Amino acid sequence: MYIIQVTTELAPVAKVGGLADVVTGLSRELEIRGNTVEIVLPKYDIMRYDQIWGLSVIMPDLWVPWYNASIHCSVLYGEVHNRRCFFIDPHSDDNFFNRRTFYGTNDDFMRFAFFSKAALEFILKTNKRPDIIHCHDWQTGLVPVMLFEIYKHHGMENQRVCYTIHNFKHQGLGGVDTLFATGLNRPEYYFNYEQIRDNFNPFGINFMKAGIVYANFVTTVSPQHAWEVRNTDQGFGLQHTLEVHQGKFTGILNGIDYDVWNPEIDRFLPVKFSVNNIDAKYGNKESLRNRFWLRKDYKPIVAYVGRLDAQKGVHLIRHAIFYSLNHGAQFVLLGLSPEHSIGEMFAHLKNELNESPDCHIELGFNEELSHLIYAGADLIIVPSTYEPCGLTQMIGLKYGTVPVVRAIGGLVDTVFDKDYSDRSFDQRNGFVFHQNDPQAMDSAISRAISLWHDFPDDFRRIMIHGMRYDFSWKNPGEQYTSIYEYVRHK
Question: Which pTM was predicted?
């Protein structure tokens, strides 16, 4: 099959969150399976240009209809870690992608409505006729609308759309001007509850809802999250729309790239190890202690790696630090907060615990260091308030670092409690708690730390169970291929 991914992120050139990793990992897996994959992106001024090979203009004149005129664009081609990529570069006073930021400007809805239009115009004008256009998140929600309302009548009647939602919280809201700018026009047609009008704002069109209504198939990033967004407030107002379109909606668990996250070949580790020589893991624990001047004592290291924001359960992360230190464990944190107040809180915490021989808080992000923490820690916590998929727990499992997680989203689909899972013992790989409060978390961390101290052989078995799981892109790749085949013949 021939697949074009239309996306606003791609690791490592344009990365804000998990979306970037998913597009990279899935595209690679699809190619391994014999498909042709191309990726269309905006040409941001802040991309990692050092990660693009052979970037050059392949289409100097792409004129994209916009309002009653056209915007002149160039299209560049380059390869990102062997992925074939096309970058759309508009030359207009709107300066859509030269903002020194990926997202967060007050006209984001117009910037990405334009990108969606330009991507389709590029596909049309170059005579590319993919079997599937796979687009992602609210930024590309208008792609299926324009495909089926406009481009279908200009020679693109056979293209089908798979639409993946990575984060339901950000949905993209535009007004009537979005319709006129993109050429959809007819507000009386689109400002309809069954169409793309926002479910709560009668004067706004909802980009994500548009994608759900018009795409041939819609996915989100784990089976549990697919249930949550339909049946709880995690649908952020789109529950009814998902219910109406449930026949074309499912959850597919994201994968992780075992070429990057694999303790057997990880170039950032002082000591490589595998499930067959698990004792070598402890060379990394020693390196981690040396790096952070931690006391060398018979204690487990509990770790947190990731963003520090409300979604990640910062109140529980803070609580876990003190609980661990008071109950026979050490604690290491690597993270950065996008929110000033949370950043300040952890800066104060770092100050407070600076002299502790059992704790280190590293505020920032450091790729090399994250690998060492995953390899050197014994336990990793993921106490998220909501977590569509989560990669941290999957990486932890691969590195023999036992996850302690809240039962939410993709965490439910990947971590199975040592004591309370209905799975057989050889499939249990971590510790799970349900309520979003310190007492629930204490129960899980307490069981984990006690097992490490009192029953080390059982703890090692849980480590081994986790390392044997396969959370590569192999299974998701198979599931997406099946969806593509299904919608191709609709």
Answer: 0.94
